[in-house]
Amino acid sequence: MSLNQVFDKAAEAFKVYKKVAASEKANLLRTIAAEIEQLGDELLQTAHQESNLPLARLTGERGRTVSQLQLFASLADEGTWTEATIDTALPDRQPAPRPDLRRMLVPLGPVVIFGASNFPFAFSTAGGDTASALAAGCPVIYKEHPGHPKTSQLVYKAIQNALQACGLPEAVFQHVSGGADIGQELVKHPEAKAVAFTGSYKGGKAIFDQACQRPQPIPVYAEMGSVNPIFILPEKAEAESKQLAGQAAQSVLLGVGQFCTNPGLIFYPENDTTESFLQELSEKLESAPTNKMLHEGICSNYYKGVNQLLAAGGVEKLLAPDEDVLVGNAALAKVSLEQWLQNEALQEEVFGPFTLVVTYHGLEDLERAAEKLQGQLTCTVWGTTSELIQAGSLADTLREKCGRLLFGGVPTGVEVSYAMTHGGPFPATTDSRSTSVGAYAIKRFARPVTFQSAPAELLPQELQDDNPLSIWRTIDGKLTKDNI
Amino acid sequence: MSLNQVFDKAAEAFKVYKKVAASEKANLLRTIAAEIEQLGDELLQTAHQESNLPLARLTGERGRTVSQLQLFASLADEGTWTEATIDTALPDRQPAPRPDLRRMLVPLGPVVIFGASNFPFAFSTAGGDTASALAAGCPVIYKEHPGHPKTSQLVYKAIQNALQACGLPEAVFQHVSGGADIGQELVKHPEAKAVAFTGSYKGGKAIFDQACQRPQPIPVYAEMGSVNPIFILPEKAEAESKQLAGQAAQSVLLGVGQFCTNPGLIFYPENDTTESFLQELSEKLESAPTNKMLHEGICSNYYKGVNQLLAAGGVEKLLAPDEDVLVGNAALAKVSLEQWLQNEALQEEVFGPFTLVVTYHGLEDLERAAEKLQGQLTCTVWGTTSELIQAGSLADTLREKCGRLLFGGVPTGVEVSYAMTHGGPFPATTDSRSTSVGAYAIKRFARPVTFQSAPAELLPQELQDDNPLSIWRTIDGKLTKDNI
């Protein structure tokens, strides 16, 4: 099937799918979740063989994928996400009457979603992007990630089964394989209305540029990772240097460092605990059980990235990268704040179990570092409660640089919930106004339309007088579940 | 002052302004509104001299500008627009605890706003873009429209007075004059975080391209106008052809056709009323009192555009453009649907009191036309209630093409309210997810940030346990005004 045919089918499916009741979209998502669970061990084994990820991790990721589908099912079902807003008519207003105005979010149309290598379930075929697009009412044209084609086919079949069981057009979800050239054609196709992507800066930026240069530009939600700095404040460092080193090591090592929120940068004070912190961190990184990375390309890029960074001026190697074809051994380096400030390349993400410790002297140093930071998915501050409060101005600066600001805890582990933001200023993403994880991810695939003086028969359920879905709506400026 | 200094000052002002209480932002907006009213006749006379717009129209526009400022003041004051969302901590959850997550919209930072020629108050210095940006917490760098520099200076002084009265940094609003080169430098400056623009396709698209090509791309909200088609259905046409012609003429003539929502395209059935509709429309357009356009450039472009369109294949001239240096005399033309479908140039906006009537045979024709339409600010259907309902599929298609879909009434007259969408798919705007009029315009200048495990002392008021602003928040997935 040509890509034109794929998009023609998607456009036809959209005509049906956009009119489907909210509850039917919810039902589809729940059925997909059930079909994925039905795949059982075969899915886990296949993903394990294709991605080298441990079965325990894949089991957890499958659970997360299922719960993502369920979260978006309940959002679709509940319906308040559509921001239904009604201004009632004021026929007698002077000098001019006000017409009846009813606004809601409607789906954008067919969207292109790219699978990610590092999450074969949760950011791939039936991952968060697909779940949120389907919940919004958009047909999905899914570009398989070449790292796990068999896994993708299994999930694709689960989705097809679900569409059939729900009596929906099969083209509500279409599956496309191919290389970067196919990806480019998908992004450039006139019928594509938005793109979602999780992966490298290079890949995401290329898609963004293509989308902007189309005759009709479209939104691109590319999540391109970041270094996710941790700022460790002096009192906390003094009091708990060893525990902090352990906590940091665990986050750096998680998933062989193959998370978008992996902490690749740690600011640590120059004091009498610096050496023991670095030593403990180094030991923890070195002594951890080793694991294979996703594939050889990612692994060789990892070592290449580490070596490039180690060659930079002023960077001191603390744990040499023990290179392997597939196993990602941890590495560690150190640099002074002054050197770090002078070299933007030291902000570049090294995808894998590596972190760079930047040593600083005082809070002013951290403020300078924060000002210099590029856009991040996360920034983390570790401090005693009193020093966190004293460092409020640092937090104010960091908030401008990221989508999620942590006070304690590690950035890895992205909760799938209502209040999550998995996004951030460029270059962490191409659209800081969005999140790719959590409930608000659904808003990426919708836009507002206002119906003026529409006959009751033509109004979507969300905007009908008697509020049949019982959703929260803004009526004449007040949030309410009331009828009109 | 160099542009670097302007942006440095804006960045400094942002540090203060982003932390200001919601009520202080509201107070600023209300004070600006009062200062503008205080300018009295001087403002009206100045704008009249610079724009040729009648005093009555300018009085109305001033009222709208003041009420826009007040609308955004009440939004800021009330605070629910920030989408505050809290997931409470679940420390005992298995397999992993959930941290405390608190999300809200925060301002983007300094934004660049371009003034529009056709609304010297409502889309200019203290217009809707400025009001929504200031309400969101963003300092504004305002690029004056060269068509009304004295008007702009007066309003600028009103804003400065208000900032001083409110004890806020003067750089919360800065005023820049200059040509397209200055505009380009503003868009390209690294400290600019978003751009808002209302004007021509050429101008808006150039800004969009510049913003996409920045090392760090930024959002552009360019509203570039459209032809705002009216689809007249057969029964309605048969029953009321004369009244419909009168209604259409009035909308085409409003403000000498210089509104973004001016109806430049009318679909009318081929039946025994066609001739009388066209004759009535032509007479109404011809006999209306004439008025000056905004300036000579716009006027000569108007006649140029009309003549270009009249020269296109199959276009029949019904009311010849009576050319003048400054007066915009109405013009009218007609084309068959088949010809219209073949020539995309017939969808291009002619800015001024001109409309093109496209004659069609059946509803299938209208569906084909709707499919072919570019993105529009508005689409309008006129029909009897029963034929509107029967034409539901036409409405379904049109909804994909516009930001506002009218059933009866005219597209001119954009209500400043909660449910308004003044936007639409490209090329009507560069971002169909936004509106530049109405309450939701505030969201253009904000992005989400999630605070994880933040000390109470560092939380913005919107996210504090006891909900001091008494706003609606989503707590653990439920909308509530409750405390935690």
List descriptors.
2 domains; 15 helices; 484 residues; seven-stranded mixed sheet; alpha/beta; homodimer; Aldehyde Dehydrogenase, Chain A, domain 2; Aldehyde Dehydrogenase, Chain A, domain 1; five-stranded mixed sheet; 17 strands
Question: What would you say this structure looks like, in words?
Answer:
Two copies of one chain form a homodimer. Chain A is of the alpha/beta class and 484 residues long. The first copy, chain A, folds into two domains: 3-224 and 433-480, Aldehyde Dehydrogenase, Chain A, domain 1, CATH 3.40.605; 230-407, Aldehyde Dehydrogenase, Chain A, domain 2 (3-Layer(aba) Sandwich), CATH 3.40.309.10. The first copy, chain A, has helices at residues 3-17, 22-38, 40-51, 55-78, 128-136, 149-165, 180-188, 201-213, 234-253, 274-287, 296-310, 337-342, 363-372, 385-390, 392-399; strands at residues 85-87, 101-107, 111-114, 140-143, 173-176, 195-198, 220-223, 230-232, 265-269, 316-319, 331-336, 354-360, 376-382, 402-407, 446-452, 473-475, 478-480. In chain A, strand 8 (230-232), helix 9 and strand 9 form a beta-alpha-beta unit. In chain A, helix 3 runs antiparallel to helix 6 (149-165) and helix 13 (363-372) runs parallel beside helix 15 (392-399). Chain A is globular, with a radius of gyration of 24 Å. Chains A and B meet through strand 1, strand 2, helix 8, helix 14 and helix 15 of A and strand 1, strand 2, helix 8, helix 14 and helix 15 of B.
